[in-house]
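Moderator note: this is an archived Q&A kept for reference. The question asked for a predicted structure of one protein chain; the sequence and the answer are reproduced below.
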Amino acid sequence: MNDLIAAAETVLGPDALDNLADALKCSRERFKSPSPRVVAVIELLTATAGLGLTAEDLPPRWTGGRVRTGELRQQFAKLFAPRQPVQVLKSAIGLTANVINERFRADRDSRQFAELSAMVELLRILKAKGGVGAWPARWQPAVHPDNARDLQARLLAVLGPHGSSHMADATGYSRDYLQQIWRGDASRRGHPVRPSESLVAMIELIETLEREGVPCERWPERWQRPKAIHHNGAFDQTAAIHAAE
């Protein structure tokens, strides 16, 4: 939570929580346990700061101005092509297709509509300033089954050689499910078992904590563990992958 507040303050200043609450049409209480949607918005705000933008360069919702929002599906379609908005949002923020379609039709004064509006506005600004490469990772092309080994290596690099077991314990995922992903096993329909969007999002999150130097003692209790990785090169990802099989 503190890290999220700090990230928002880099763009919105010391009144970041009040500005967030106004822009997303919610109360400050919502940020005590931020949803993936709130986290995604703050990531986008932080990305604008990385391009040298300030609050004055952002859409009016972030400076207390009047918000004019068009039809949401069309706005996302302009960024992700007509047939892709729902799929992209499923991947990026972990909602089902039905929920996303409902939110496209939500009342324009609702929190649900405001969240998606804020996202598409920020995505548009980032693309105009730095191209799609300026978008946070969750908005980039989804992880393909062929890259499952890479995803596993990323997990082990943060949680150590027993990272799959730790992930299973922390999240309630089946160990068998994780191993099916890493091996590229076929599903009942004959397609490789794909990592869920929530699994990818959690790996991205713990990678960020590690990269930002947040000690594991400050992570949520479910993630705390003795450090299993040494940054002096002693950790061998390839050997760890084989050991985890």
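Archived answer notes: Residues 72 and 116 are 8 Å apart (CA to CA).
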